[in-house]
Amino acid sequence: MSIRPGLLAALLKAGHLHGAIRWKVDIDEGIASQEIAMAGAHQVILDTSGVKNLEDFFAVFATQVKPLGFSSVDLSNFEDALATQAANTAFLWTGWQEFVKNAPADCEVLADIFETASAKWPGVVLVLGKQGAFPHVGELTSVS
Questions:
Q1: Distance separating alpha carbons of residues 4 and 61, to the nearest angstrom
Q2: How confident is the model at residue 144 (pLDDT cuts 50, 70, 90)?
Q3: Closest Cα to residue 78, out of 99, 101, 106, 105?
Q4: I need a surface site. Which of 34, 113, 118, 133 has the fewest CB within 10 A?
Q5: How far apart (Å, rounded) are the C-alpha atoms in residues 13 and 38?
Q6: DSSP for 31-59, written as a single string
Q7: Where are the domains of the chain?
Q8: If you average pLDDT over every residue of the chain, what do you get?
Q9: Do strands 138-139 and 124-128 pair parallel, antiparallel, or not at all (unpaired)?
């Protein structure tokens, strides 16, 4: 499904999106960038295509996100690395399906960390893509 223009911006502005959320939508990166900017939020693209375990994930995260003050990221400092991101950051996470298939328990660990971190760090991780489920991540099906 594709999203209605302006929906992502409205959800971010209204504060409806926080923590880790599975959203089964097709959204063009350019449109997402515009909507995130309209909401006054910061965007981070996290593409974990080819990632099969936590070690791979942390290497990709460190390379793509470049958290301030961290030359490397691992399980012991991941929550702190997230906290270096600006408030109101929207992570658009794509390419996660292979990771879930190969290491569902690792994905559960990350989902729990994103949830815990969201209490201290006002941001959102949108797990995007039309297919698949992500362990311990609720699906956005309606907005109240």
A1: 29
A2: very low
A3: 106
A4: 133
A5: 9
A6: HHHHHHHHTT-EEEEEE-TT--SHHHHHH
A7: 7-131
A8: 84
A9: unpaired
Tell me the pTM. 0.81
Alpha-carbon distance of 112 to 114, in angstroms, equals 5
Kindly state the tokens that stand for 74: 């691992």
- Edge to edge, the sheet with strand 42-47 lists 42-47, 89-94, 124-128, 19-23, 138-139
Would you state the pLDDT for residue 58? 97
**Per-residue pLDDT tens for 103-136?**
999 999 998 888 888 777 777 777 777 778 888 7
What are the φ and ψ backbone dihedral angles of 31, each rounded to 5 degrees? -65, -45
Residues composing the chain: 144
Calculate the CA dihedral of residues 4, 15, 140, 52 and round it to 10 degrees. 110
